[in-house]
Amino acid sequence: MKKDITFKALKASGYQDKSINEEIKDNLIARIKSNEKVFEGLWGYGDTVVPQLKKAILAGHHINLLGLRGQAKTKIARSMVDLLDEYLPIVKGSEINDNPFHPISKYARDLIADKGEDTPISWVHKSGRFFEKLATPDVNVSDLIGDIDPIKAATLKLPYSDERVLHYGMIPRANRCIFVLNELPDLQARIQVSLFNILQEGDIQIRGFQLRMPLDIQFVFTANPEDYTNRGSIVTPLKDRIGSQIFTHYPKSINLAREITEQEANVSIADKTAIDVSNLAKDLLEQVAFEARDSEYVDAKSGVSARLSISAMENLMAAAKLRLIETATEKTSIRLVDFTSIIPSITGKIELVYEGEQEGADQVAKILIDQAVMQQFEKIFPRIPKLEKEGVKTPYTDLINWFDNNFVELNYTDTDNEFYTNLKEITPLLNLIVEYAQQLDEADKNFCMELVLWGLTINNKLDKSENDMAYKFDNTNVSKHFYGNN
To answer: Of 132-146, 149-163, 385-399, which range is least confident?
Structure first.
């Protein structure tokens, strides 16, 4: 925390007065010239959103971030705080961060007129220069702009015509700050109108007070395209006053999605140490979200938030942690059977179309997991033929035949040693791993054993049943011999 100084000392320090646009712009230019990373943690936006964001800042524009839910719109807005100066000098006691060089409130003007060079100056850290408001239908002009405060008028014995009876709303209090208005279409049209002059001319009007207050604010708005039809719209004159509209998007690759999940998931260091998550398990988790975004059961206009993968990872880790507690062991790994624990994360993050409602949310979640399993399966193993020619072996014939007289039960609560020893007793399964997954590390090989069994059940080559504690694989209810052309 910097100590208070006088206006005279501020001038003597060589402080350069800047608008917030100039401040952000200068700090952006300095970072670019020194090859520093400008925005931290915005995975997948390096070639798309970030360049547009830099140009909007250099142009001095207010910004509208337009994209589906879970596309880091608010994170982008919050990251702009890093481009502010560490501390900002204000007239001490000012409600609206008055610039001592250009005071705009009556309080600051009067104080400077009275004390001159001895006007006390205090400092605001950049963390205190970020204001955020969620636009909801109940937001009114008083919340955003301000109103007359009758209690203040009575206490100070002032008439309502005196500017000192005003209570400033969130926007004037965000003077010389970044102000983020989330879900802009949810704001009623008549409230959006109140922003016109603030964006263009800097004027505000409160209950008949015609004030010339050139507020210095960097506005960032966020909006979801779905909201334009479902709940409201951005009125055209307001949209016209927003300099740059930037479209966000979901990660375009599994690797980028993994980076986001790793960064955002709330997993302790202790849990990361005790619980091993193979690369295949991480890929499968992200693949579920990719399948959801392309699913015929899920409303694509609503989007599938990146929070699905984040929440799912937290549930996966919780399932493994519960096993550690119940088995009194110190180490375990994520298994495919653990993926049932991510179903609540899926059902809470997707909006279903009519066909999905008919299937039911839980069933859709299981379908998405199965589809993700097959995507990962076919990257490593040969495609499973739907029909088999009589007398012609496939890579999976020996394994399927093994289940004629055997079954395997995979218990959630087994220790890793018990769990994988059980799987490794299936010799044809081990042969498949050696032939097609030899290049993978040991953790991925272990995960592949489950992947093969799961893939065969999805293709009706084996039967899979489950209860609260275990999965059982056999071929009791499966017609084992299919004849025809591949």
So the answer is: 149-163
